[in-house]
């Protein structure tokens, strides 16, 4: 029975060490107001686990928190996957920013490590930025 305990503990620990940050009003009485931001990049700056550099439409978004933030399982830095209203929009910030108006954002959730890989497969190895909007207009 002892040989079974070690693999089980490794799986449990690896799942618990992944980073996940959420900036949503669902857990609090007051929902965050994203309408004050000019661009998606500005809104992403408000999420503590992301480093956003650049301005206008030329932003680079990287993960900065959690055990897997530096390695991202070998993914290229800044290669976070953008998911808008449950639809994979790829790793191009320009595409994601053209689909999202900050005033329509309901929540932003950042997945990293094993949780991102379990939900989005290999495409989630660099981290995932899940954005939920009120317009639900993602293609």
Explain what you see.
This protein is an alpha+beta fold. The protein has one domain (2-133): TonB-dependent receptor, plug domain (Ferric Hydroxamate Uptake Protein, Chain A, domain 1), CATH 2.170.130.10. The protein is built from four helices and seven strands; from the N terminus they run αβαββββαβαβ. The protein has a five-stranded mixed sheet. The longest helix has 15 residues, at 2-16. The protein is globular and about 55 Å long. The chain starts with a helix and ends in a 6-residue tail after the last strand. Mean pLDDT is 73; it is low at 13-20, 22-29 and 70-75. InterPro entries: Plug_dom, Plug_dom_sf. Pfam families: Plug (PF07715). Keywords: Signal. Residues 1-21 form the signal peptide. Residues 37-128 form the TonB-dependent receptor plug domain.
Brief summary:
It holds the Pfam family Plug. This protein is 25% helix and 26% strand. It has four helices and seven strands, in the order αβαββββαβαβ.
């Amino acid at each position: 029975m002892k040989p079974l305990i070690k693999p089980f503990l490794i799986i449990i620990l690896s799942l618990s060490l992944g980073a996940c940050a959420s900036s949503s009003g669902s857990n609090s009485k007051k929902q965050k107001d994203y309408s004050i931001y000019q661009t998606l990049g500005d809104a992403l700056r408000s999420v503590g686990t992301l480093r956003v550099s650049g301005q206008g439409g030329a932003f680079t978004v990287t993960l900065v928190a959690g055990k897997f933030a530096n390695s991202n399982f070998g993914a290229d830095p800044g290669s976070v996957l953008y998911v808008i209203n449950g639809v994979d929009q790829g790793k191009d910030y320009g595409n994601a920013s053209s689909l999202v108006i900050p005033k329509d954002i309901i929540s932003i959730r950042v997945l990293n490590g094993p949780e991102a890989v379990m939900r989005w497969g290999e495409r989630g190895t660099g981290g995932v930025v899940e954005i939920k909007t009120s317009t639900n207009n993602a293609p």
